[in-house]
Amino acid sequence: MPPPPPTAAERGIEVRQRLLRAAVELIGEVGTQSVSTRLLAERAGVRPGLVHYHFASLPALLRQAAMGAMRPLLTEGTAAFTAADSPAEGAELLLRQLDGYTGRDPQSLLAVEVYLSSARDPELRAALSGLVAEFREAIAAALDSAGHPDPAGAAATLAALLDGFVLHKGLSPELTADDVIPTVRHLMQP
Asked: Which among 35, 56, 60, 82 counts the fewest CB atoms within 10 Å?
């Protein structure tokens, strides 16, 4: 006996997910300013009218897609850092994970584009700022537990360094974690 056909609610959830996945791809490929309803619908394989049926607006959909992509990156980074044996090892682990990015790969381009878009979109800026603040607070708490003399400052510096590392890899693909780890280890020492 074949499975029953999906319900209208299940089809709606699937369309929303397809739109969000397509938006994440397009943000990194063409930038948020170039994502149109038509382009997004085409990539998702749906009619353009469904974009506005399922989301209040195209910018709202792009914000949700951007935050949906950025949240796991930062929460996984936080988990990796706090699970490490020491803050220095946690920072090294994060840098080594970022070494896998070229600065021109879809994930790097997505992150750069989301940061850039947040400068123009106050709602995205507020959401991304909150997410980054959570990341810095978790790093600062781990540094404080390890006896670091300036946990908040070191956490902010590490977050900025990680972002800058991704940006610089796009300009200098030969840049590796090994180039910055000695300095970062020193920064993380209590």
From this structure: 56
